[in-house]
Amino acid sequence: MNDSSSKSVWRDRALLIAITLSSMLAPLNSTMIAVALPRLITEFQTNVAHASWLVTSYLIAMATLQPIAGKLGDRWGRRSLILGGLICFGGASLAATWAPTLEMLIGFRLLQAVSGAIAIPNGVALVREVVPDHQRATQFGLISSAISLAAAIGPPIGGVLTSLAGWRAIFFVNVLLILPALLLGWWAFPRSKPSASSRPFDWGGSLLLASVLASLAGFLSQMRQGGLPVSPGVAVAGVVALMAALFVYEGRHPDPIIQLRFFRKRAFAAASGAIALSNLAMYVTLLSLPIFLSERAGWMDSQIGFVLAAFSGLMIVGSPLGGRWADRWGRRIPTVAGLALFTLGLLPLVIQAETVPLAFLLPGLAIAGSGMGASMAGLQTSAIESLSPKEAGVAAGIFSTSRYLGSIVGSSILAGILSSSGNFHLVFWMVGSTAFLSVLVSLGLRDRPLSEAQS
Predict the structure, then answer these.
(1) pLDDT at 198 over 80
(2) Can you give the pLDDT at residue 140?
(3) How big is the chain by its Cα radius of gyration, in Å?
(4) Of 45-59, 105-119, 298-312, highest mean pLDDT
(5) At the topology level of CATH, where does 1-194 sit?
(6) pTM, entire model
(7) From the centroid of its chain, how far is CA 300?
(8) CA-to-CA distance for 280 and 261, rounded, in angstroms?
(9) Class of 259-455 per CATH?
(10) DSSP string, 320-375
(11) What angle do CA 252, 254, 259 make, to 5 degrees?
(12) Mean pLDDT for the stretch of residues 278-294
C-alpha cells in the first residue's frame, strides 16, 4: 500500500508539473515575440501593421478555439489532446525557426496558438478531475503564478536571445518546456475512454463561434490599428449578424458548444465576468503606464521597468497565496478581497496620475498586483467547479476566452482614447471603474462547489 500510495503521489505531482509547463507556453510566446518585432520588421522589410499580426493572430486564435477544444476534451478524453497539442506546438516552434517569409512565420505562430488552445483548457479540466476540492484552488494558484512568471520573463528572454543569436533563437526556448511536459504527461496523464454520446458533435456551432470571436477580435484589432477595410457600421452589423446566427443555431442543437444554461449558473457567470473586467483593467494599466510615464512624466526606461516590476512581481507572489486562502476560507472571500485590493491600489492613478509621486505610485501598484494575483485562483476554481466534471473542458475554455477578450477589448479602447484625445485621465478613470465593477460582479461567486454547499 505504501509503494502504491507513494507512486500515486509522484504521479499526481508529475501531472501538475506537466500541466504547469504546458500552461506557461502561451504567455511566454505572446510576450517573448514583442521584443523581436523591430528585428523582424527590418529583416522582412515590412511595417509595424503587418508585423503586429504575429501578436494579433496569436491572441485571436487563443481566444477563439479554447471553448471548442475544451468541448472536444469533454467528449474524446484529455490525454491525447494535451499530448498532441504539445507535440504540435513543438513542431510549429521548430518550423518557425526556418520561416523564410513573414507570412509563413505568421502561419507557424497561428499553428502554435491552435496547439496551445487545444492543450490549455484540457489541462485545466484535468486538474479539476484529479485534484481534490480542498486542494484545487492552491494548485490553480501555483499554475497562475507560473503563468504570470512566464509572461514576465518573456521580454528579457526574448531580448537576450535576439541580441545574441537573432530572433529565430527565441522559438528554441519552447523545447525546454515541451520535452519535460511530454515525458511527465505521457507517464502521469490518465487514460480515459471517450464518453458515449448519441448526439452529434456541434461542428456548425464550433464554426460559428470561431467566426464570431475571430470577427469581434479582428474588428477591435483593426480599429486599434486604424485600418478597417469597411465602415465601422458595416463591421458591427456583420458581427451582430454572426452572433444572432450563433444563438439561433445553438438553441436548436441537442448538444451545443455554448449553452446559455452555463451563464444561468451564478458562479460561472460571475467568474467569467469578473475575469474579463479585471483583465481589461490590468492589461490597459500595463499598456498605458509606460506610454504615460515616458511621454508625460519624462521617466527613463529603467524607472518604468521598476514600476512595472512592482505590479507584475507581486502578481506572481499573490497567486499561490490566494489559492491557499481560497481552499481555506472558500472561493468568494479571497477573490472579492483580492479584487478590492486591486481596485484600491489603482486609486493613485485614478485620482491624480499626472502628479502622483513615486512614493505613492509604487506601493499602489504593489497592492494592485498582489490583489490581482490573489483573485486569480478563486475565479478560475469557481468557474470550473460551477459545472459538472464532464463539462470542465468547455468551462475552462469559455473562462479563458473571457480573459483574452478582456485584454483585446481593453487594448482597443485604450488605442481609441489615446488616438482621439490622448486623455490619460480618462484612461485611468476607465481602469478604476472597470476594476471596481469586477469587485461587484465577483460577489456572485460561491464559497464552495454547489454539491458541498447543499450537503
Answers:
(1) no
(2) 92
(3) 21
(4) 105-119
(5) Growth Hormone; Chain: A; (1.20.1250)
(6) 0.82
(7) 30
(8) 25
(9) mainly alpha
(10) HHHHHHHHHH-SHHHHHHHHHHHHHHTHHHHHHTTT--HHHHHHHHHHHHHHHHHH
(11) 75
(12) 83
